Amino acid sequence: MKGIYCLIIKIQKNVSVIIGRLGKIKFEKGYYTYVGSAQNNLEKRIERHLRKNKKKFWHIDYLLENPNVEIKEVLSKKASKTKECEMARKIRSFGVPVKNFGCSDCNCESHLFKINDIKQLKSLFII
Predict the structure, then answer these.
(1) Please, what is the end-to-end C-alpha distance for the chain in angstroms?
(2) Average pLDDT for 83-99
(3) Are 102 and 23 in contact, with CB atoms under 8 Å apart?
(4) In which domain, by residue range, is 110 found?
(5) Structural domains in the chain (count)
(6) Is the CB of residue 49 less than 8 Å from the CB of residue 7?
(7) CB–CB of 60/49 below 8 Å?
């Protein structure tokens, strides 16, 4: 299956993490969502994110490696790659972007957002 997904991530306490070439970023404790896509094997991409031991390739890999960071839930749906950035723009209306995170291959401000309203995020995945 190909589609888009959002990882619902909980950061247990304030942390600073070196995120590849972005350098050190401070993350406040709370909930975040990361928007991604996979045009082949969406399930395998999600499984990869859920593993702790993996080669770091994407910005999100650096964040998820931190012991104070945990994926709490994964939302996904069948969609084209263009819907990934559309989803990021929708989340921007209620989430606080982590500048330049996860969007090196597009013109988005971010694909990682600090959120307070998980129900609002989930409503974007109702088909």
Answers:
(1) 16
(2) 96
(3) no
(4) 3-123
(5) 1
(6) yes
(7) yes
Partner residues linked to 7 by β-bridges: 34, 74
- Are 10 and 123 contacting, i.e. CB atoms less than 8 angstroms apart? no
Tokens 């972005």 correspond to 22
Q: How far, rounded to the nearest angstrom, does the alpha carbon of residue 13 sit from its chain's CA centroid? A: 18
Please report, for residues 33, 43, 66, 88, the alpha-carbon distance to residue 92 in angstroms, rounded to integers and kept in the order given: 11, 25, 25, 6
- Work out the angle at residue 22's Cα, subtended by the Cα atoms of residues 58 and 97, and round it to the nearest 5 degrees: 80
Cα–Cα distance list, 101 to 23, 41, 105 (Å): 11, 23, 11
Provide the β-strand partners of residue 14: none
Interval 113-124: pLDDT, tens: 999 999 999 999
Q: Is 84 helix (H, G, I), strand (E, B) or coil?
A: helix
In this predicted model, what pLDDT tens digit does every residue of 29-75 receive, in sequence order?
999 999 999 989 999 999 999 998 899 989 999 999 999 999 999 99
Instruction: Decide: helix, strand or coil at residue 19.
Output: strand
Distance CA 87, CA 96 (A): 14
Asked if 97 contacts 22 with a C-beta cutoff of 8 angstroms, the reply is no
